[in-house]
Each structure stands twice: as C-alpha cells, then as structure tokens.
Amino acid sequence: MSDSEMGMVERFTDELDPVVFVFGALITLGVIGAFFIDRDAVSNGIATVNAEMLSYLSWALLVIVFLIVLFLLFLIVGPWGKATLGDEDPEYSFLSFFSMLYSAGFAAGVVFWGPTEALFYYDSPSPLFGVEGGSSAAISVAVQQTLFHWALPQLAVFTIMGIAIGYFAYNYENVPLRVSSALTPVIGKENLDGPVAKVVDILAVFATIGGVATSLGFIGSQFITGLDYQWGISMGDWGILLIVTTMTILFTVSMVLGVDKGIRRLSNFNMGLFVVIMLATFILGPTMFLLLLGSQAMGGMISDFVSMSLYTGTGTDGGTAWVEAWTVFYWAWALSWSPFAGLFIARIAKGRTVREVAFTGIVATSAATIPWFTFVGGSAVWAQHNGVADILGPVGEHGAPVAGFALFEAFPFGSVLMIAFMIIVTTFFITSADSSTLAVSMMTTGGKERPSTINRVFWGIVLGLTAAILMILGDGAGADALQQAVVITGAPFAFVCFLAMLSLIKNFSATEGRVLLQDTTVLVGSTPDQSDDEPAASAEPSDD
C-alpha cells in the first residue's frame, strides 16, 4: 500500500465518530439483510408499527409542520431575520446557493410527482373540498392540493433544520456541524457528545439512508419505466443493477469532486434544463388554460392554507385515511429527509442571514415549484379530462413513473421532451444522491465539512445498493414496507424539528431581543419586590 493510500485510510479511521458510524451502518445494513432473509415478517412488523404511529401521531405532524411554516415566515419579516450564520462572507453566489438547495434537497421528488400527483387528486379529491372525482370542479382542487403539498410545508422542515444546525455550528465555539447541534440550547453544548446527541445522529443516518434511497428508487424506476414504455427496453433485475450502478458511479464521481466542482455545477445545469422543460410544457400545452388554472389554484391554496394544514379528516367517511395516505405521509417523508437536507443547507449557507436562508428555503423554492406543478401537472389533468391523452390508464398498468412519458407523448416534439425528461431524472438522481451522501459522511465524522473520500464512497455504495434493492422489490410488500419504515423514521424528526425551532426561539430571544414581551419580563415566578416610590431599574437582556 502506497503512502498516499495509507494516508487516505488513516484519515478515514481518524475522522470517524465510531458510535454513529458503526450503529448507523449496522442498522441500515441490517434492514437490507432482513428483507432478504424474511421479507414478509419484516414487512408485517413495519406495517403494524406504521399503522399505530399514524393513528397516534398524525395530528402532531400536521400541527408541528404548520407551526414551523409560521415561524419561518416570521423570520423572513421579523427582527430576528438579521442574525447571520457565522461572520464570514457567503461561499457561493445566491443563484448557486439556490440551485444547490433546490436540486439536492427537493427537486428529485418534484420531477417524479410533477406529471402524476394532480392526476391522483383529480381522480380522488381530498374530502375537505367535497367535489366529485373526475369532474370539472376537481381540476382546480387537484392542482391546489398539489401546490400545498409541494410548496411551503415540505420545504419548511428542511429549512428549519438548516438554519438551526448552521446557526449553532457557526456562531457557537466548539459546536460541530452535525444534526444534533440543532438542539444545542436544549441539551446543552457540554452534552453534544452525550447519549441523547448520539441517538439523534444515529437516527439521522438511518432516516437519511431510508428516505433518500426510497426517493432514488422512485426516480430510478421512472428512468427504467420510460425505457420500457417508450422504446420497449425491458430491464430485469440485472438491468436494474446495471442502471443504478452506472448512476452510483456518476454521483460518486460528482461527490468526490466536491461541492464546488461537482454538486454546484450539476445543480446549475439541472435548474437550466428544469426551466426549459417547464416552459416547453407551458408553451406547447394549453397555455391560457394553465394561466387561469394556476391563478385559481394558487389563490385557493392561500385562502385554504390553514384548513388544509390542520385537516385530519375527522367526521368524514374516508377522510382520515386520505389524509394519512397523502398529507401525513408526505410530511413524514419530508421529515426523514430533514436531517440530510438540513445539514447540507447548513453546509452551503455559511455567512448568510437567517432571513435569506428562510426566504430561499420556503419562498424562492416555492416560486420555482408552483409553476412546475401548475404547467406539468395542470397539463396532465387537462389532457386526461378532455380526452387528449389517457394517462391514468398507463399509470394503472405501469405505475406512477409512466405518467410523464404518457403526457409528453401527446405533445409536439414529444420524443425530444421525453429525452430531456430522462436526462433531468438522471441528473437530479445524481445531485440528490451525492449531496445526501456528503451529509451522511458528515454525520458519521462528527461534523467534518470535508469528509474523506473513503467515507463518502462507502456511503455512496450503501445508498446505491439500497435504491437498487427498492427497485428490484418493485411493487411488492418489500417496497411498501420500506416506505412505511421511512414514515417510522421520519415521524420522530417532527419532534426534533420542533425542538430545533424552540432552540432558535430561546437563543434569539436572548441575543436579538424578545418580540412579544419586554426583555425584563419574568416568564416564571414572581418579580423582585420594589418600593412604590422607587422607579423601576432597566434590566440587562435575559439569558432565558
């Protein structure tokens, strides 16, 4: 072994947080192995836990995510937004920062569900609105529900973790860049190497691998379904492994190149192609209809935002089941991404203000997401409703991944759009995979911003392997069970995100001044006795 190879190995072993690395790897690999040993037993066990968790915690996820959205909106317009994540200048331009945040933490799901989700709501609308599936009234409601799911709330859980991790890591001394650092004021800086912090970081590794691999499994299946549906290229298990292996090699190369040369450049390319496909759909599709539909759906989302956020389906036949199958599942899935996305956001947001990160995280990204779902999803619903194309038929036969190809097949220059769509599916797979792998590597090295190549390659292989297994399992019980496992691992992070929000409130109240109460207000207990004829003394800002 050469000196350089020995140096790489030594760096890998020296930088590891052995507890987080070993337990995170063992849990992840253990779940993978368990599916091969006795898939049915594991699937049944996970399904039972998932059902119980949804029964008792669905309301909590809805309330917590709603409160986080309100808090981030307050940070954008309120006085606390001027706080900065460290005292250095930002490392990246705003456009690159936005592109990386969007591509790495969110856009893979946007691309997958863009042509598909509104169709499901058109066929089976939320009971909240009381409209009949497949009717004209269901068109606007379907797009409105889609915008609600993919605009502010999902982005909010990523953003709150990114702000909390980055603020405490860059503004406190000796606080590492890792997920548990978001809870610094709650658990205490001296306990960041304690058992509570270790548990949070281990669960973060497991949740990230499960959540991201499930999403990458969907994205990979979209690529392979497109090959089969459009060109008749059927991929067996070995073909799936070949495709995922190729994608894994690509994102590993991008990851090894680093954030600046790899993720940043590919993210900028992604956003350019994303805009091209979106505008092409708008121009070639029912342009005026999409403008009218988008205005109405966005207005409905704004006016109904509170009721949609807190709707549990209680008292309506099938209402609770619908909410748990869609909104609660989405929130839990987003929460399973929140450790990785938050850590990655913190990594690229150094030097920016809290207001800027909050604005980018929930407003700027929503400004890109809303037109995509309006143009692509709205075109799909329009085509289905007016008989221009039968998309639900192929979806019922081949699954959700085929929707985009069935839609673009009905467009002028459809083959060109489908090829561009497959390219963006691949590149978003790569950016999501390499940024999540970087985040997991950071989690398992105690918060190092630039983990060793061996560490990143190891987690890249694990992530690619997990995604391949999901795709091979396909529509069987195994895939369903692993998705349910994502809910199980993601739901507890609702409380981690809530505690991260409380940590920020506690810190900003002490450093930036209280908003509702005077700084001298005693929150608990009695005030010191004062003489009636003595003026009250001005107090120093409290540390509470």
UniProtKB/TrEMBL annotation:
UniProt subcellular location: Cell membrane
InterPro entries recorded: BCCT_transptr
Transmembrane regions listed in the UniProt entry: 20-37, 57-80, 92-114, 150-170, 199-219, 239-259, 271-293, 328-346, 358-382, 402-432, 453-473, 485-505
Keyword Iron-sulfur: no
Subcellular location, principal: membrane
Membrane topology: Multi-pass membrane protein
Protein name: Choline/carnitine/betaine transport
Organism: Natronorubrum thiooxidans
